[in-house]
Amino acid sequence: MHHCLLKILCIFSISKRNCVNICSNKKSPKSVIYQGVPKLLHKTVCDKRRKSEVISCIFSLKEEVGALARALRLFEEKGITLTHIESRPSQANKDHYEFFISVDSTSSQALDEVINSLRTQISGHVHELSRNKQKDTVPWFPNDIPDLDRFANQILSYGSELDADHPGFTDPVYRARRKEFADIAYNYRHGQTIPRMEYTEDEKATWGTVFKELKSLYPTHACREHNRVFPLLEKYCGYRPDNIPQLEDVSRFLQSCTGFRLRPVAGLLSSRDFLAGLAFRVFHSTQYIRHSSKPTYTPEPDICHELLGHVPLFADPSFAQFSQEIGLATLGAPDEYVEKLATVYWFTVEFGLCKQGSEIKAYGAGLLSSFGELQYCLTDKPKLQPFDPDKTSLQKYPITEYQPVYFVAESFEDAQEKVRKFAATIPRPFTVRYNPYTQSIDVLDNTQQLRSLADSISSTYQLMLAVL
Asked: Matching NCBIfam families, A to Z (predicted)?
């Protein structure tokens, strides 16, 4: 059913055997509450058909005769017109039902009063759906891949502006160059071709220094997945000491391998926004390079870090899936859990070690793009601990010096399963999965959706049996 704006036709009493959706057509929607909800998770979003704005929330009521009627009367008393309402049995409390409602944005102030009344007069549990960091709200998250355009330019630091301690701060040529890269990122929109850059001889020399030093260490220090992909990048993407690869070429290569793609970004994003991109198999990549005065040091991610550290692993199916699992786990999660997942990301995707046979190898991009730390991490100086998301997520870490602690994964598959179990502990009123056909997020929250998912799994299973 298309999720258009709907009028409430009646006020009704609720019983466990007669919980229905109020809608303009009698057919059950494919999703009872959350299908389409991510598009409504903005505090206000524009409906394409009516060009109006809506605000949404979810509230739960105890199962008893007249409960919903009393709740809806609160909306009526405040003169609020409900444009959409859906229902489902509560997953948290067996004797409760949950209701998703939308109202016109002009009712914003009145809705706040109703929400307070729901909590105080009816003892209802209410979740407002919002990007704003307010108590009891479900944080906004992108519903489909073009939604990444909404936050891609909300960088936290650097971009074209540099701190006083940045190596390029006093270099006007470098600062002007950084502005060129920032402008490209700011103007980029999903679906466009990433503009090709003509790198200067100075920039290529900096790349060459980093490239040659790191390549000499990869055979002995990098994981086998990195070493398997790196020659392919040299062959198909122009990885050479005298050439800085173009993001568009690398992005197309990744898409052909695992469906991952690159998107230019001007600087550092928030943890929530950056990890949300991974949920769509999108990696926000810088296009600029570190200052030539310090080719072995950078205070921020640059194209050396992205292309030499991250890209080879994103071309590996197991690692790509693992990275996406972390991203999916952050969607709609409370801030404190996003912080924990960001720490897990730091100690895996950025600074992770893994067992391969009788040896330990590096797979984190922060290691694979740092000549010094790549050597250091495999010595007896740092402390190595087994990867456990519950413990890893609480580990403090420095950002301007080598890590004193690294976490060792048994394998990417094992790490992925552990992250999946960790994600199951996140208090969200729904579960999400990525739909690669529509490049959007499916929010799983009812038996009908689970049945559809089971049918999809069954179809895949039948194909496996046919092969066997």
From this structure: Phe4hydrox_tetr
* Domains (range + CATH), the chain: 37-139 (3.30.70.260), 148-423 (1.10.800.10)
Residue 305 known to bind ligand? yes
For residue 305, indicate whether it is catalytic.
Answer: yes
Residue 68's CB is within 10 A of a number of other CB atoms, namely 22
For residue 334, which phi and psi values (nearest 5 degrees)? -60, 155
Residue 325, marked binder: no
What would the pLDDT profile of 208-232 be if each residue is shown by its tens digit?
999 999 999 999 999 999 999 999 9
Choose the catalytic residue: 323, 350, 370, 393: 350
Judged by DSSP in three states, 399 sits in coil
Cα 259 off chain centre by: 15
Q: Is 127 annotated as a binding residue?
A: no
> E strands within 41-179?
45-46, 53-62, 82-89, 96-104, 125-130, 137-139
Residue from 369, 370, 393, 440 carrying the catalytic annotation: 369
> Model-level pTM?
0.71
358 in active site:
no
